[in-house]
Amino acid sequence: MKNLLLSIQHLLAMYAGAIIVPIIVGKALGFSGEEIAYLVSIDIFMCGVATFLQVYKGIGIGLPVVLGCTFTAVTPMIMIGSKHGIDVLYGSLFASGIIIVLIAPFFSYLVKIFPPIVTGSVVTIIGITLMPVAMNNLAGGQGSKSYGDPLNIILGLMTLIIILVIHRLSSGFIRSIAILLGLVVGTIVASFFGLVDVSAVHNSNWFELPKPFRFGGFKFEIGSILLFVIVGIVSLIESTGVYHALSEITKTPIERKDISKGYRAEGIAIVLGSIFNAFPYTAYSQNVGLVSLSGVKSKNVMYGMVALLILAGSMPKFGALATIIPTPILGGAMIAMFGMVMAYGVKMLGAIDFTKQDNLLIIAVSVGVGLGITTVPGAFAKFGEDYAWLTQNGIVLGTLTAILLNLFFNGINNQQIEETMK
After folding, report:
1. DSSP H helix total and E strand total for the chain
2. Where are the beta strands (DSSP E) in 297-365?
3. Which of 47, 216, 265, 350 could form a disulfide with 60 if both were Cys (CB 3.0 to 4.6 A apart)?
4. In the 8-state DSSP scheme, what is residue 421?
5. For 95, phi and psi rounded to 5 degrees?
6. Residue environment code for 121-134, b if the CB has 16+ CB neighbours within 10 A, otherwise e
């Protein structure tokens, strides 16, 4: 019973992140309520599969690592899905997963060109580009008839305040699910104003197995593939820190080959996820805190959580519950969540020596170029569609700018590499 309760606790700690990404992406791409319910269900299901791949030492790193969809993929998925279509979106995810699997044995060497000054700049760019999505949802959703209605703003800000108050006054497990609690309370309040539609729950099946290629087949586009490879690499670097943290907590030494297996498991999870129309994955740091707080390091707890995720993901009616959250309520929560992505990027940059003017210049130019192209994508449009993957993609251009400028000013700095691998 104790292990079951701990498994449920792990599930709740990662649940908000697991359900919100598919809801945001589904709504942004114009999916129906039924389709969004499927996205939520398949994401929960595949989080279970991905976590199993990572925890099982024969395939993954063999530590109690929880894999969930990454927020850094939200902007790229919306961007590619809107511009190129769902088939290119999932074809690019599939190809990027294959590339991650192939580079896994060598990534500990490739990481030399992705020190904190590069990854911090990239995550900062991604975090900044996510904020318009949050603000549009806070206002009621772009294109909505009630867009900008004061009631939407008030309900969204109320949700944000609830999240902040819970986070301020609580600790431990309750603090770790502050966003989930904020969404629940916000939805309950919004229901009194007639903003909660439960039709998707009524129309969903109780049990349904995942369907491969639910939304079509694969198409490939080089710029989209490159963008998801960058997202995957950022996720691998984030996961590296989780690997080392869990290694210390569980007193389990890990070698380079173990880390390589962890990277490979994440790549396989992306490949499988793309086939079933799910999402890219990364190691969830919030669950590391639970391993530390509970003092329970048994992988049986993780296998229990895997079973719960797969069971919940096979019940579309359960997933449909997440779709009843009103758009303004999501928007309020997104301000906190997406702001944390940006803040995490700033935190990564905190490892940099800011007394060096060269470092300031690298950050200034790469973030400036990335954000500039994101907000004004037509600036380089006359270079033609053949180069649009680079000239009209702020994340790709910002990343390449950061890599090249870092090599130009700093070369390959061993201290930066050590900071990245911590």
Report:
1. 20, 2
2. none
3. 265
4. H
5. -65, -40
6. bbbbbbbbbbeebb
DSSP label at residue 412: S
Contact (Cβ atoms closer than 8 angstroms) between residue 99 and residue 274: no
Lowest mean pLDDT among 249-253, 262-266, 402-406: 249-253
CA distance readout (Å), 265 to 30, 52, 228, 287, 297: 31, 9, 16, 18, 20
Helices (H), 139-221: 150-169, 172-176, 178-191, 199-203
Whole-structure pTM over 0.90, yes or no?
Answer: no
pLDDT, one tens digit per residue, over 45-95 is 998 899 899 888 888 888 888 888 887 788 788 888 888 889 999 999 999
Give me 33's structure tokens: 């309520």
- The CA distance from 109 to 107, in Å, is 5
Backbone φ/ψ region at 376: left (φ over 0), alpha (ψ -120 to 50), beta: beta
Half-sphere exposure at residue 78, Cβ-oriented, CA atoms within 13 angstroms: 19
Model confidence at 345: pLDDT above 70: yes
User: Rounded CA gap, 118 and 102, in Å?
Assistant: 22
Tokens standing for residue 299: 């992988």
The one-letter code for the residue type at 15 is Y
- Through-space distance between the first and last CA atoms of the chain, rounded to whole angstroms: 35
How crowded is residue 384: how many other Cβ atoms within 10 Å of its Cβ?
9
- Per the DSSP assignment, residues forming a β-bridge with 69 are 281
Determine the Cα angle at 321 with ends 318 and 323, to 5°: 125
For residue 317, the one-letter residue type is: K
Q: Which residue intervals of 204-298 are DSSP H helices? A: 222-249, 256-275, 285-294
CA 186 and chain centroid, separation: 23
Query: In the prediction, which pLDDT does 330 show?
Result: 82
For position 87, what pLDDT does the model report? 92
For the CA atoms of 371, 376, 382, 388, the dihedral, rounded to the nearest 10 degrees, stands at 50
Is residue 318 a contact partner of residue 167, using CB atoms and an 8 Å limit? Answer: no
DSSP 330: H
Q: Is the pLDDT of residue 419 over 80?
A: no
d(Cα 405, Cα 407) in Å, to the nearest integer?
5
SS3 246: helix
For residues 364 and 294, what is the distance between their CA atoms, to the nearest angstrom?
A: 42
| Residue 403 to residue 410: CA distance in whole angstroms | 10
